[in-house]
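[Meeting: bench + compute handoff]

Bench side (C.D.) handed over the final construct sequence. Compute side (W.E.) agreed to return the predicted structure before the next meeting so the bench team could plan truncations. Sequence as handed over:
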Amino acid sequence: MAVNSPLPVAEDLKPVHGIEIGFAEAGIKKPDRKDVLVMKLAETATVAGVFTLNRFCAAPVQVSKANPAAAGAGGKKIRALVVNTGNANAGTGESGLENARETCKALARMLELDPQQILPFSTGVILEPLPVQKIIAGLPDAIANLQLDNWYNAAEAIMTTDTQPKAASRTVTIGGHTVTMTGISKGAGMIKPNMATMLGYLAFDAKVAQPVLDQLVRHAADQSFNCITIDGDTSTNDSFMLIATGAGSLQVDSVDSPDYAALRDAVTDISRNLAQQIIRDGEGATKFMTITVEEGASVEECRKIAYSIAHSPLVKTAFFASDPNLGRILAAIGYAGVDDLDVTK
């Protein structure tokens, strides 16, 4: 049961023009559950992402990192994302890479695109072969129900051990332009980011230049998904994708513009909401804690201390028992690796 995290309301999740969403029940791991998701993007869309730094980087992550450059070399853009749950396609070697590419090829044929214009994502069990034929067989159903307002179904379609879907939506006004943004995330175990941990997809309808979006996604991840931990483990499949569909009237071409600052803050705010929903639904979680570190010499030093406290089993057990036990926090700060820590304070 999630810790003080109400279920998203489907009607509150706003459609984002320029992105259509469809899902299917392909029976990848369990029957009668949503497990394949397709996101089709407008030609005006730009896409940027951050990915796991785990050395056992999953096959779909490797393909998703390579495809934008391959598409760009041919003068084309990313036009679709495909996600499956129930199988991570991680630790699967060359056959896993081929299965990820085969999924892209199949969806590309159905949408009349190039395979390099597809980004694949997988989540679920590690070290098991991807049932690629089941995924491909489910793609026609996902395409058939492509809709603007399928965000709640999308949130359900990427769940693994999550106890509930995670989604958020905002409408903001920037420079006189209305911007609609909606996002989903998943994750409950293997949550300790080393970029962004979990799967997360956030779309908004502004026009954003690619270099600007590349910087925006890194900023948003560092201020949200890169600030959470449940169990201290970084997954093999973590990905956070930012999609600017270009269907709205706001246009941002520079990180130096006031409009960029306003958009950055709005994107970061909703990203933080999605990240916190993951923490509240953590496997075995009964408490939601925020750690604030002040007067550090740098952001990195503050992060080091915060994570030392957050990862300590003794700190966790103390708070589980509702007994803060400040001595355990003191000890965790002391071994955080800050060499010039002033303990006289």
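W.E. noted at the follow-up: The radius of gyration is 20 Å. C.D. will use this when planning the next construct.
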